[in-house]
């Protein structure tokens, strides 16, 4: 180890070498001084700034050189203070959210996988594989050809809406006639699948799929008609001299409508942000994920949810403690299926569709898992529906003079009606459990808002959301609909 004198001399030599390299020799430094004297006052300021920057770089490089040449025992001396300022423990309430917890999240994932793997193995050893071959090969959904034909004929309604808008653009119809025809078209687009499902004894999965497609078509047609109506009003106001400095281009194009009907959005506009290209490798990986998580959902449903539901009693009849035990036992596999459904639908499938169509806006959801109130959850959970509600229901109600509370009530009412249609129609049973479940979100939103305002620094609102929405609400709806359908089938037979 070199003595301090050797260390000092080596550092001075390094500093001299650095100066010679930057100055390009002694002559270079003289030329720089003479040029700075001959410069104007403004250039002096610039030169001084440059010199300050160079001096900072010099000090930084000198420090680096010192670190490289200084022995370790001269860097940290025993007399140097080890405690310089006040600091909090990483898990204290004042510092817990100022750092990453990725390691703890990875630990939770590993523990979750280990615990559930043990439960899966124990279930298979006790009951065996409960998935029949019919689940994978010969499902009754394949034989529901009337529902398939109904689904394939749904594009008739967008075509009819396009013809109405084309005639309205050429001023062949009055605005009253246009609105009336759109009401008829949108109403028929939702009643037609309902009648087909009720007339045919179709499987539940086929009925749910058809009703979801019908609801999507209905919402897209409403957006198409409402947006074109608004563009006509803006174009007429521009023609009459109002806001003449703004160009409102209004065109009815079959290509824009066709793209809108298959795009992963519910809000119509003439053009959308587009991605540069289609990533084929990324697309293949997403398709593999879709198959894996769909199979995982089927396994959980057949292996866990169906046996629990079949062996349970009606949750509103019989022993209260038994009903609570059944709901809590069903809540965990139901939560897994719901999370897999969210991942498959909102993340994988919508991104696959957007990638194929080069649809640029991929914000199909936000961080709803951090929602502290129910209304915050509904604003983050399903962004296509949320944007549609805000654009075509909520703000039109406000512009027409309705109070904010009434606009929120109307939005929840429309959502409750379509939730009921998507479940009750395939079950052919109208007990309004889904409708009441959605409308119950209003007092629950008031409760979570109260908790969040009262306990601002806590996650009580988030825990209340998870408890009521996932642990209690969804399993209760599953049990209610299952037993009501079974009772209806038993009475009919």
Automatic annotation (TrEMBL):
<dbReference type="GO" id="GO:0004144">
    <property type="term" value="F:diacylglycerol O-acyltransferase activity"/>
</dbReference>
<feature type="compositionally biased region" description="Low complexity">
    <location>
        <begin position="1"/>
        <end position="17"/>
    </location>
</feature>
<comment type="similarity">
    <text>Belongs to the membrane-bound acyltransferase family. Sterol o-acyltransferase subfamily.</text>
</comment>
<keyword id="KW-1133">Transmembrane helix</keyword>
<dbReference type="InterPro" id="IPR004299">
    <property type="entry name" value="MBOAT_fam"/>
</dbReference>
<keyword id="KW-0472">Membrane</keyword>
<feature type="transmembrane region" description="Helical">
    <location>
        <begin position="102"/>
        <end position="121"/>
    </location>
</feature>
<feature type="transmembrane region" description="Helical">
    <location>
        <begin position="432"/>
        <end position="451"/>
    </location>
</feature>
<comment type="pathway">
    <text>Glycerolipid metabolism; triacylglycerol biosynthesis.</text>
</comment>
<feature type="transmembrane region" description="Helical">
    <location>
        <begin position="176"/>
        <end position="198"/>
    </location>
</feature>
<keyword id="KW-0256">Endoplasmic reticulum</keyword>
<feature type="transmembrane region" description="Helical">
    <location>
        <begin position="463"/>
        <end position="483"/>
    </location>
</feature>
<protein>
    <recommendedName>
        <fullName>O-acyltransferase</fullName>
    </recommendedName>
</protein>
<feature type="transmembrane region" description="Helical">
    <location>
        <begin position="145"/>
        <end position="164"/>
    </location>
</feature>
<dbReference type="InterPro" id="IPR027251">
    <property type="entry name" value="Diacylglycerol_acylTrfase1"/>
</dbReference>
<feature type="active site">
    <location>
        <position position="419"/>
    </location>
</feature>
<feature type="transmembrane region" description="Helical">
    <location>
        <begin position="204"/>
        <end position="222"/>
    </location>
</feature>
<keyword id="KW-0808">Transferase</keyword>
<dbReference type="Pfam" id="PF03062">
    <property type="entry name" value="MBOAT"/>
</dbReference>
<dbReference type="InterPro" id="IPR014371">
    <property type="entry name" value="Oat_ACAT_DAG_ARE"/>
</dbReference>
<comment type="pathway">
    <text>Lipid metabolism.</text>
</comment>
<feature type="transmembrane region" description="Helical">
    <location>
        <begin position="335"/>
        <end position="357"/>
    </location>
</feature>
<dbReference type="GO" id="GO:0019432">
    <property type="term" value="P:triglyceride biosynthetic process"/>
</dbReference>
<feature type="compositionally biased region" description="Basic and acidic residues">
    <location>
        <begin position="48"/>
        <end position="70"/>
    </location>
</feature>
<feature type="transmembrane region" description="Helical">
    <location>
        <begin position="287"/>
        <end position="305"/>
    </location>
</feature>
<feature type="region of interest" description="Disordered">
    <location>
        <begin position="1"/>
        <end position="86"/>
    </location>
</feature>
<dbReference type="GO" id="GO:0005789">
    <property type="term" value="C:endoplasmic reticulum membrane"/>
</dbReference>
<keyword id="KW-0812">Transmembrane</keyword>
<dbReference type="GO" id="GO:0009941">
    <property type="term" value="C:chloroplast envelope"/>
</dbReference>
<keyword id="KW-0012">Acyltransferase</keyword>
<feature type="transmembrane region" description="Helical">
    <location>
        <begin position="406"/>
        <end position="426"/>
    </location>
</feature>
<feature type="compositionally biased region" description="Low complexity">
    <location>
        <begin position="31"/>
        <end position="45"/>
    </location>
</feature>
